Amino acid sequence: MNTNSATTSDAAFAPARRINQALTAQMEKRFLQWMAERAPRWVSSDQLTALGLGAQIGAGVCYALARYDRRALLLVILCLALNWFGDSMDGTLARVRQQQRPRYGFYVDHMVDIFGSVALMCGLGFSGLLHWQTAMAMLVAFLLLSGESYLATYTLSRFELSQGLFGPTEIRILLIIGNLALLHSPYSTLFGHRMLLFDLGGTIAAAGMFGMAIMVGARHTAQLYCQEPLHGEGPLHVLDPLHVQEPLP
């Protein structure tokens, strides 16, 4: 490897801004910082990332087991809590200890998110608590929204962790509430029609993510068009309403 080239590449890399406007973002940030400052020295960011992935895969396995015993949904809740801890703490711990690896952290964290999401949705599909079509629609919508976020991070140097008031933590909270409701009954009634509760919630979630991907994609396309006009056109200025900024881990 050319050491000079590697050094130049590292020096030229500028971490994207982190933007998180989720409902629990500020409270969660303070809590994570408090825990990171008190974490044992033997705990590392990579270990927390592995914990987050293992817990999300475990949640998928427990969803599949819920087909035979709905008490497995309690284990899903535990796995979701462990996934939150590992997925949220890894970057915070790196920042508190001044051990940031922006490119490595961003790449590994989001590859883990992709594999974990596939495991979770496949587990839901096997659970019998919703139809496979609903689980796959949620997975495709999530991957579309994630892909848009990754592309925006590269082209706009801005990484949006949330869409509106919803981020990963809010999604986990909704899943936990849904699991508790499933322990009572897997069905819901809408306008007199009985249907699976997670079919209803999953359809709303998938439609929301699809719509959000289209809306955010259109906004970012317009913003990039204004920043890179055709030859002969002057640069146009677009007001950016987002203002919560943090460095990438």
Summary keywords:
single chain, 249 residues, mainly alpha, Four Helix Bundle (Hemerythrin (Met), subunit A), three-stranded mixed β-sheet, two-stranded antiparallel sheet, 5 strands, 67% helix, globular, disordered N terminus, disordered C terminus
Distance between the termini: 25 Å
Domains (count): 1
Q: What is the name of the CATH superfamily?
A: CDP-alcohol phosphotransferase transmembrane (TM) domain
**CATH structural class:** Mainly Alpha
Low-confidence stretches: 1-8, 241-249
Tally of alpha and pi helices: 8
Largest sheet report: 3 strands, mixed
| Structural class category | mainly alpha
Specify the helix fraction band. 55-70%
One letter per element, helices H and strands E, the order comes to HEHHHHHEHEEHE
Tally of strands: 5
In percent terms, what proportion of residues is strand? Answer: 5-15%
CATH fold title? Four Helix Bundle (Hemerythrin (Met), subunit A)
- Return the average pLDDT rounded to an integer: 88
